[in-house]
Amino acid sequence: MLHRAIEAHQSGQLDDAEALYRKTLQMQAGQPDALHFLGVLCHQRQRSDEAIRLIQMALRTTPQHADAHNNLGNIHKETGNLVEAEACYRMALACNAQQHDALSNLALVLEAQLRPEEAFEVYTALVARAPQLGRAHYLMGMYLRNHVNEIEDVERAIACFRNAIRCDGKDVRSLDALGVALYMLDRDEEAIGVYRDWLDREPDNPVPRHMLAACGGDRVPDRADDAYVRDVFDKFADSFDEQLLKNLDYRAPQILTKALIEVLEPPAASLDVLDAGCGTGLCGPLIRPHARHLDGVDLSGGMIEKARLRGGYDELVVAELTAYLQANLVAWDVVLSADTLIYFGDLVPVMSAAYAALRAHGWLAFTMEALDGDEDRFELSSSGRFRHTRSHVERVLNSVGFGSVTITEAVLRKEVGKPVIGWVVLARKGAVARG
Ligand SMILES: C[S@@+](CC[C@H](N)C(=O)[O-])C[C@H]1O[C@@H](n2cnc3c(N)ncnc32)[C@H](O)[C@@H]1O
Q1: 196 and 260 assigned to the same domain
Q2: What is the rounded CA–CA span in Å between residue 84 and residue 81?
Q3: Which CDD domains match (predicted)?
Q4: What is the DSSP string of 211-232?
Q5: Is the minimum distance from the CB of 234 to ligand 1 under 6 angstroms?
Q6: Cβ(340) – ligand 1 distance below 6 Å
Q7: What is the residue range of 144's domain?
Q8: Tens digit of each residue's pLDDT (9 = 90 or more) over 128-143
């Protein structure tokens, strides 16, 4: 019966598995494996308190069970109890020093507790004890890439990702990480090889396809493909706020809303506002005092879900921005967009749609990454994001009808320790629509 329960559990039939674990426990009260796996299952079903009780019961009978300590640690980690999680991983390792999952989890939990030196020691031990384990090299590479002190750290990270791929030929996650590390060192030619390799393994994956173009290995699209945006941001949604605010010093929402609020009337909750590419909703609370009605639109369902949890929006829609604007004529007084048009190369369709979606005297306010130079042009950089020159942005806005345009320069965030310079753009629709 336990065997059948485990099989059902492994194949994702959680109702059947739970019933079978419970039957096993009726037949043999306290059976430690049934308690342990039922605990894991309860956690999967968001019943983490019950899960912890069950695994603790199992451990009373089998206190040397390294996997059970490790799984208990995972539940504590995922419910935010990092201190308890660390203790569980240490117990797992005391029971079995070869429990590599517990060792990698211990390193991750030390890193999450902002103890990087200790984490580094544990990653080093993991690579030494399990040199054939791709995950060990991948985690070490990520650690080095995320804690860059000198250029050699990125070189070391690159070596780790290459080792990870050697250990596990199916490890596309390391190919992804390798491509980013090569970008950090401006090694576009090598990155092209990595993305081609990834595409050979996953021909339908939009991420290597986009990144190959970004590194100069394929035709540049007019804007990032919808599938690429969805894939990247659905995966990024859980860690977006932490990554951008803590690690990348992201300020676009603050800078943009500050510039916009300076030209608006004092806040009177009187405007209909669209947050275009709202992501996790960082702009929402900043513009809310001015909004009678606040809409948010984004291609990524994962990001929209985060914005919904943050609250403050009247309506949140999962849709492609240009199409959504085109479907809503003369609908808003303000369309604002922080760091979303960096996924658009050709700005004409989205800007003319924004113009048509605004009411007379309406404001379009957005940030984007700056491309140096006086020429009228844009490029897809090897970061995967588009950059536009000031004169290009100005010309496109004028061409679609915006009479009054101001563009200022600002630091929007950091990348690889360096400031990312962007444009903060305010454009106003006149009293009489053109065209
Ligand atoms: C860097 S995030 C910025 C999110 C938010 N504006 C902020 O400042 O925190 C870019 C967002 O643009 C969205 N996005 C990119 N291209 C889009 C498109 N064509 N239509 C709708 N959303 C898009 C992404 O899904 C992502 O949430």
Answers
A1: no
A2: 6
A3: AdoMet_MTases
A4: HHHHTTSSPPPSB--HHHHHHH
A5: no
A6: yes
A7: 2-219
A8: 999 999 999 999 999 9
